[in-house]
Automatic annotation (TrEMBL):
Family the UniProt entry places it in: Belongs to the GmhB family.
The organism's place on the tree of life at top rank: Bacteria
Matches recorded under InterPro entries: HAD-like_sf (IPR036412), HAD-SF_hydro_IIIA (IPR006549), HAD_sf (IPR023214), Heptose_bisP_phosphatase (IPR004446), Histidinol-phos (IPR006543), NTP_transferase_dom (IPR005835), Nucleotide-diphossugar_trans (IPR029044)
Xref: CDD domains: HAD_HisB-N
Cellular localization per UniProt: Cytoplasm
Gene3D superfamilies assigned to the protein according to its UniProt record, in alphabetical order: HAD superfamily/HAD-like, Spore Coat Polysaccharide Biosynthesis Protein SpsA, Chain A
Any one Gene Ontology molecular-function term assigned to this protein's record: hydrolase activity
Keyword Zinc: no
Keywords: Carbohydrate metabolism, Cytoplasm, Hydrolase, Metal-binding
A family per Pfam: NTP_transferase
Protein name in UniProt: D,D-heptose 1,7-bisphosphate phosphatase
Length: 414
């Protein structure tokens, strides 16, 4: 499972004029107290990238002060500063010793709303990298990319050539082996990627999520207008035992994980559609002393690994270890607010995350699941066996109309 995400945040942002004289571009605010980079980091963190590196340069002290050593959800942040500008390829080369075998690399001045786990799970064969590409009506500002099958065969140098086509979305999954190809000073986009493409070593996947690059004053304005609203998402709340994994009775050993048919694909559909996915699970086995919370965490980590294999992820697991008949004294509570049918776990997720209620729903296999959803003001749907993917699609049809497309319906007037 790829766990490293690296952000290139060293650029000077000269096209933005005076506003980047005292603030590095990725630290420009979208709203009071919220930097553009905060949003990018939060996206990586919720997709399970726990080792986050920020490669800073221009005004790097500010980046270091804001982020170095911080934790965001389960992720740890480090800032690595370069003293002299070396371009995107040079910046990456300087941190060669830090690179995992495969890692996510992202531009710190653009946002592409995609399922990052899908990018990280593309079968790579002998390729050294895969780029997320976006179709746009006019490639002239960016330069075009030519895709043949799953391979990138050409990068058009001809900026200014108008017309629809694919562009580089600024999000890459790369092999550490790329380090041998990095110049001391130079550009990934202008030098390294075109050369890899000529050798057939670069893959591309077209993605349709919302894309914005804050390099120009008008696009920064648009980001400020649109992103705070776009960052709210509907959520799917999923019970765990009997919905994601087969319920063997107090299931907690990683080796006992058996997926419900098409459960992982259902989660990936939700991820692709831009939904938050939360697990809300009563874990009476902890209350009864059958296993510990640490053992449950190991089980969830195994679920995350196996989800990542297919390009899926869960944003957060909420569990209730309390039970009225608990044998572990501290967990004995008559009717804990978190224990379904009480809605505590759902209400907590609604406080913890920017959830858009419209389109949100729960899927469970017991009446207590459905009741918890209803007490939280959400529709609940009973899974009755078969493909979980079908049930998710039925829930979509019932509560949100036709299945939404990531970014597709979240249009924002520019
Ligand atoms: Mg269940």
């Amino acid at each position: 499972m790829i766990k490293q995400a690296i952000f290139l945040v060293g650029g000077a942002g000269t096209r933005l004029g005076s506003i980047t004289r005292s603030t590095p571009k990725p630290l420009l605010e979208l709203a009071p107290g919220t930097a553009f980079l905060d949003l990018l980091i939060d996206e990586a963190a919720r997709h399970g990238f726990t080792d986050i590196l920020l490669l800073s340069g221009y005004l790097g002290g500010q980046v270091e002060q804001r982020y170095h050593g911080r934790r965001v959800r389960d992720s740890r942040l480090r800032v690595l500063r370069e003293e002299e500008p070396a371009g995107t390829a040079g910046a990456l080369r300087r941190v060669s010793a830090e690179l995992d075998p495969w890692f996510l690399l992202a531009n710190g001045d653009s946002f592409f709303d995609i399922n990052l786990r899908r990018l990280a799970s593309v079968p790579r064969g002998s390729a050294l990298g895969c780029l997320a590409l976006r179709h746009v009506q006019d490639t002239s500002r960016f330069g075009g990319v030519t895709l043949e099958g799953d391979r990138i065969v050409d990068f058009s140098e001809k900026r200014g050539e108008r017309g629809p086509g694919l562009i580089n979305g600024g999000l890459y999954c790369l092999s550490r082996e790329i380090q041998d190809r990095l110049p001391a000073i130079g550009s990934l986009e202008g030098q390294v990627f075109p050369s890899l493409a000529r050798e057939g070593l670069l893959l591309g996947i077209e993605q349709s999520g919302y894309f914005i690059d804050i390099g120009l004053p008008e696009s920064l304005d648009q980001a400020r207008r649109c992103l705070p609203q776009l960052m709210t998402r509907p959520a799917a709340f999923l019970d765990r035992d009997g919905i994601l994994n087969v319920d063997h009775g107090y299931t907690h050993r990683p080796e006992d994980l058996t997926w419900i048919p098409e459960a992982r694909e259902a989660v990936r559909d939700l991820n692709d559609a831009g939904y938050f996915v939360f697990v809300v699970t009563n874990q009476a086995g902890i209350a009864h002393g059958f296993y510990t919370e640490a053992a449950m965490d190991d089980f969830h980590a195994e679920m995350a690994r196996q989800l990542a294999d297919v390009g899926a992820h869960v944003d957060a697991f909420y569990h209730c270890p309390y039970h009225p008949e608990a044998s572990v004294a501290r967990l004995k509570t008559p009717a804990h607010a978190d224990r379904k049918p009480n809605p505590g776990m759902i209400l907590r997720a609604l406080r913890d995350w920017p959830v858009r209620p419209a389109g949100s729903f729960l899927i469970g296999d017991r009446d207590t699941d459905i009741e918890a959803a209803s007490r939280a003001g959400l529709p609940g749907y009973l899974y009755r066996g078969g493909s979980l993917r079908m049930t998710v699609n039925q829930a979509w049809a019932a509560c949100a109309g036709p299945r939404p497309k990531l970014g597709g319906e979240l249009t924002c007037a520019s």
